[in-house]
Amino acid sequence: xxxxxxxxxxxxxxxxxxxxxxxxxxxxxxxxxxxxxxxxxxxxxxxxxxxxxxxxxxxxxxxxxxxxxxxxxxxxxxxxxxxxxxxxxxxxxxxxxxxxxxxxxxxxxxxxxxxxxxxxxxxxxxxxxxxxxxxxxxxxxxxxxxxxxxxxxxxxxxxxxxxxxxxxxxxxxxxxxxxxxxxxxxxxxxxxxxxxxxxxxxxxxxxxxxxxxxxxxxxxxxxxxxxxxxxxxxxxxxxxxxxxxxxxxxxxxxxxxxxxxxxxxxxxxxxxxxxxxxxxxxxxxxxxxxxxxxxxxxxxxxxxxxxxxxxxxxxxxxxxxxxxxxxxxxxxxxxxxxxxxxxxxxxxxxxxxxxxxxxxxxxxxxxxxxxxxxxxxxxxxxxxxxxxxxxxxxxxxxxxxxxxxxxxxxxxx
Length: 413
Ligand code: GDP
Ligand code: IMO
Ligand code: MG
What we know:
Blueprint: E1 8-13, H1 21-28, E2 34-37, E3 46-50, E4 53-57, E5 70-73, E6 78-79, H2 81-93, E7 102-105, E8 109-110, H3 114-119, H4 132-153, H5 161-175, E9 179-180, H6 182-191, E10 196-199, H7 225-228, E11 239-245, E12 248-250, H8 268-275, E13 288-290, E14 292-293, H9 294-304, E15 308-312, E16 322-331, E17 334-336, H10 343-347, E18 350-357, H11 374-387, E19 391-395, E20 403-405
Parallel strand pairs: 1-10, 1-11, 2-5, 2-10, 5-7, 6-8, 7-9, 11-15, 14-16, 15-19
Antiparallel strand pairs: 3-4, 12-13, 16-17, 16-18, 19-20
The structure holds guanosine-5'-diphosphate, 6-O-phosphoryl inosine monophosphate and magnesium ion (MG).
């Protein structure tokens, strides 16, 4: 396949996370030389299946499974060094070379209340680890503050300075060879014609501004943050791929208009939960399940500027007799065709559904669009019509190769 050079693609989740971003990032990395994480921390969890072998990733970009590809952790990421080395060692045991290919921005901060500290302009950055005295002074200020809350407000035990400092210095020695000016390296790679892939974590509805606030994560998960979170200009982002499950899931609390009963056997929600194996990679918690929400996707398309969609887990819907598609909501006596902003309004939304026929054939492992059952194609076409976003890819199993490509993100418009 001929691929355009110097072209950069952003992959974002368009729902509440776990849309299958990791699988698609790994697949698309065939056409890229560098993969960049730009936000979130080890709260992300991606499962990749390559030749039947599963790999779980949290902090390390999902491009790591392609030999020779460079992986970057941008300034927008919050980094737990302990979690990072746990993950690196796991990959090394499985024979994956990591340290020579991983570049970590010196502007990354530690996790914990890290985003809170970042906005309050007191956070510890990776670059502080290069100067033990500077690190120690900043750590003392932070511990004074956080220990006050821990002890006086929460009645918990204080964190010991020496324990944190000693561990940080041990990690500093291991991190130093991977510390980099990621912004400069990405701009240089782009100038030299590399294709880059910016990998989002979480999903648009977990974005701190555009999600179901306050039931959100602490970073911006939308495509625009690929630039700010890695140190490149927005003009370097050429194509935005929205990863979208063929239904919806959500981990944890917060409004979810199309949620179904997913615990009772025999119901469509139970089908999604069990056939889709909807359990969190990071927390092991069951993911709540519900119908596809096209009005939610409209919001996502708008705030990300999506170029195209990749519909994942279409195979999970195999065997369902009827499918409900949410096209809008009733809210306070009015109808609306787009998800409102913030949790309070979303809580009051009643979905408006349109019913489509399901299909009984298996779509597992299908790699050509015209081999999909006719009702599956009608479902996809209706999603395109209602959301106004073209579907460029479809995923039909967890396996790297079980992907239908209608329009390749790395081919120029
Ligand atoms: P991420 O956080 O967006 O990378 O997604 P996760 O990896 O947390 O969750 C997606 C889950 O669905 C993983 O277990 C994948 O292996 C699996 N998966 C991805 N695409 C497909 C697909 O098309 N069909 C099925 N059945 N499973 C898929
Ligand atoms: P990936 O990258 C699904 C959920 C958490 C919690 C809420 C806030 O795998 O798609 P936080 O860690 O910021 O306190 O989380 O959001 N959450 C995710 N759910 N996928 C994720 O990431 C998630 N990251 C956080 O469970 O309810
Ligand atoms: Mg996940």
